[in-house]
Amino acid sequence: MSRILNRIASRLVALLIVSVLAAYPAHALAQEYKQLPVDAKLNSMSKIKLSDERKAVDRMLSGKDPFNEAQIANFFDKVLVPQMTAKENVIVERKAVGQRPATKTSLLPAVRKEIAEISGPQATSKQARDRMNLALYNGMGGIVMGPYHPVARYNAMLAINELNDSVSSSGAVPYSRALGAMKAVAVGATFPEAVRVAGVTGMVRHAQYGTLTPDQIKFLVDLATDTKLRPAQLSDTAYDWMRRRAVDALSHWYKRSPPTKGEAIALAQTILAEKVASVEPVDPAIKKAEGEAEKKLTEKKPAEKRASVELRAEAIKLLLLAKAPLPDGLDTAQLASDISMVAVDACKRELATSLQAGRPVSTEDGVMFYVALSQKALAALNTISPTPKVAELEPLLAAILALTGTESVVKDQIYDNLTKAHAEVESLATGVPLSSVLVTVAPVGGFPQDPNGVGFGGGQPAPAPGGGPGPIRPPGGFIRPPGR
Predict the structure, then answer these.
(1) In the chain, domain spans
(2) d(Cα 72, Cα 391) in Å, to the nearest integer?
(3) Do 342 and 400 contact (CB within 8 A), yes or no?
(4) Does 380 have pLDDT greater than 70?
């Protein structure tokens, strides 16, 4: 599941670069942004790739030729790094031809690919690799910090993320020095949103394959929970994404270095206690007609800054790393309520989105993922600390999956389901007994099943972790309300 979610995360991060490309026309590049002077002879990536200079560097990195510091420094400082700011690489616009629409892209990922090829496992000379890393770190860092195009600064930050202290057949060890730059970029005062997100994304890789110091771990915890670290003028979407990547990094780190003082549980509790931004149908007027409901949903604004469903899902994954026994005094009923609310809010958001977009309600992909994730966490919690009310949530979550139909009367029933489910989940934390009050909506084709046959909606309790549950079905993409 983590590998698939990481691929989804990479695709979502890529959306940031698309927005940057759309915002800046190629003809404005020379007028507004600085460019490093390119080598007169090796002025394109195609020429660099086949050059004698590149071959000489390759031989030094592989240990076939003696180390020559000046030669390595000149190649990276004067030849390769300037390609990251060259206007021919930053934005490439292709005009519409016939049926083919106009497109806008960047060649900078190809520059990073070239760096990855040069610094691959064949680069076994530590002395040469260290000098190469220093040149790339300083050169790319200058681009990240300087008055260069946002696309160049973003790709330069990614290039720093991708540096390695060593590469072998068993894997790569990330360049430890880069962590300082990642932290500075994440919370500094003058960086574009895409660059900030790239910085935190790099910390995820270090948590997976490198080493984090106690201060770096504390920084990730603070970034995930302390709004004082939020840079000024940062959008809610970018800030939420940075928090999610911080939790993701901590999850990877805690897998490798399990916490002993309940740190994972405390962090997960803090995030899960936050409520979702109000994009769900909370107004009773939604029941009048789809048109009126759509208007109400569009006009509804969040009352306060709250955690997204995606962020809380990351917190649940973190919580699943916790081992028994749970901390003394843990309010398992409140925790179960917060876990369940992730599933309820995901379903509410899907209903709101379907009304706004004028499409059928769907339980596929994202909704299924969040409900299944909540079920798995509840099963794990009930195994470690049995709580009768937690077990009662299983049929409730199963009933929430009855989200089918295109007619407004069916959507009204779905809304009734979700409204009552919301009240039921909240009652769990206040001690009010749960009741079977959900409206039954028959799903088309029966309740969905996961690939291993574990019923996500058949009314059967999810198996406990010790019983060997199947993997959670991951989303094909996170469901987002229009305009967000």
Answers:
(1) 1-93+103-210, 276-299+333-484
(2) 63
(3) no
(4) yes
